[in-house]
Amino acid sequence: MKQILFHHYPQSPVAEKVRVVLGIKSLDWYSVEIPRLPPKPDLMPLTGGYRRTPVMQIGADIYCDSQCIIQELENRFPVPSVHGREYEGSQAGGQAGLEWGISRWMAGPMFTHGITVVLGAAESLPAGFAEDRGRLYFGPSFDLTQVQTEVAHSVAQLNGQFAWFEETLSRGQSFIMGNNPGLIDALAYHLVWFLRGRWSDGPLFFARFPALCEWEKRVREIGHGRSTEIDSAEALTIAANAVPQTQEGVGPTESLSPADLVDVQPEGDGGDPIVRGAVVVLNRSRIAIARTDERVGDVVVHFPRIGYRVTAV
After folding, report:
1. Buried b or exposed e, range 228-238, using 16+ CB within 10 angstroms
2. Can you tell me the distance from the alpha carbon of 264 to that of 63, in angstroms, rounded to the nearest whole number?
3. Residues of the chain with CATH 3.40.30.110
4. How far is residue 214's CA from residue 229's CA, in Å, rounded to a whole number?
5. pLDDT 10s digits, 38-82
6. CATH number of this structure's domain 5-80+226-312
7. What ranges make up the beta strands (E) of 60-171?
8. Model confidence, pTM
9. Which residues belong to CATH 1.20.1050.10 in the chain?
10. Architecture of domain 94-222
11. Rounded Cα–Cα distance for residues 216 and 148 (Å)
12. What pLDDT score does 1 carry?
């Protein structure tokens, strides 16, 4: 089973980032809708406890975090490249390193400002949503009243940062890095999509950026590739009937060895569960661990190295 199974929900901005990449690459994929809030009983057997969205499954190999998912999509489907068509087929990737560096800013401080605006300015939110996301992004001391006082500051920060994109796009190019869509477009678009759709003042805010709005339309027209819905029970069956395909490999500078037991957890204090397993892959960009679950059997769960803490057990 080599098909892409994408575990997500429609309102997820981080999943939208990956959906745009699926569109850029014009891929076929299976859509598995998961709950917005824990518990996620048909996702936990695959991930070992990782509860964030999205997750990608290919057979019995499970990819957590949009950073890891997009890198794997690029590895498996290098044409067209998300790093610019001039780099198709090249292992060097040219501008790839710069783009991934930029991604840490966009998925970090800039996204946090977006979360602040959406949570702090909301007139109403689904039951438990603010509490869950506040804990996830702001830590155990999350206070919605305090977040509300930060909205004006976060709007000012976003205004200045989106102005950089407006300046770039005002030069006449179709996309942020040139005339072909790529990783930076997916990263920026998910922020625009999130704020426009979830913040009541979003449309008015973006009206001040006409070039950005035209770019937004172009990215929207790319679409999400071609998806087919399947239920989560079928996804579990697919994993149970598959064998992980990940090849063992540990970088020469790492202090751990294959089969060493480790705990993996996102950085910060968002209340994320620890995922425990035996090392299969460990290098500068990725940690993959083997684990067994009674519902799916043997799986290998992949995480990005950057942004995750790996602790020997």
Report:
1. eebebeebbeb
2. 13
3. 5-80+226-312
4. 31
5. 999 999 999 999 999 999 999 999 999 999 999 999 999 999 999
6. 3.40.30.110
7. 61-64
8. 0.95
9. 94-222
10. Up-down Bundle (1.20)
11. 28
12. 46
